[in-house]
Amino acid sequence: MNISTLDKSFAMQMSRDELLRAYRTMIEIRAFDERIEKDFAAGKIPGFGHVYLGAEAIAAGACHDLAADDYIASTHRGHGHCIAKGCDLEGMMLEIFGKAGGICGGKGGSMHIADFDKGMLGANAIVGGSPPIVVGAALNQKIRKTGKVAVAFAGDGASNQGTTFEAMNMAVVLQVPAIFVIENNGFGEHTASSYSVGAESIAARAAAFGMPAEQIDGVDFFAVRESMLKALERARTGGGPTTIEMKVPRYLGHYIGDPQAYRTPAELKAARAIDPLVTFREKVVSAGLLDAETFAVIDLETYARVEAAAEKALEAPYPDPSALERDVYISY
Amino acid sequence: MSGITAVRIPKWGLSMTEGTVVAWHKAVGDSVTEDEDLVDIETAKITNVALAPGNGVLRRITVDLGDTMPVGALIGVIADAAVADAEIETFIEDFNARFGVLKTEGAGEAVFQPATVDSRLGPISIGQRGDGSGDTILLIHGFASDMNSWGFNIEALGEGRTLVALDLPGHGTSTKNVGDGTIATLAAAVGDVLTRLEVERVHLVGHSLGAAVALQLAELLEGKLGEMVLVAPAGLPGSTVSSDFLNGLLTARRQRELKGYLEMLMADSSRVTHEMVEDIIKFRRVDGVMDALGKIRDQINSGEQFAGLGALVEKYRPLVIIGEADRIIVRDSLQENGEVKVIPYAGHMPHVESPNEVNALIVARLG
Amino acid sequence: MAKKTYLQAIAEALRLEMRRDPNVFLIGEDIAGGAGTDHRGSVGGIFGLTSGFIEEFGADRVIDTPISESAIIGAANGAAITGMRPVAELMFVDFVGVCLDQIFNQAAKFRYMFGGKAKCPLVIRAPIGGGLRAGAQHSATLHPLFTMFPGLKVVMPSNPYDAKGLLIEAIRNDDPVIFLEHKLLYGMEADVPDEAYCIPFGEADFVREGDDVTLVAFSAMVPRAVEVADRLEREGISVEVIDPRTTSPLDKGAILESVERTGRLVIVDESPPRCSMASDIAGIVAQEGFAFLKAPIEAVTCPHTSSPFSPSLEDAYMPSVERIEAAVRKAHAYRAAA
Question: Among A270, C44, C73, C270, which is least packed by CB within 10 angstroms?
Answer without folding.
Answer: A270
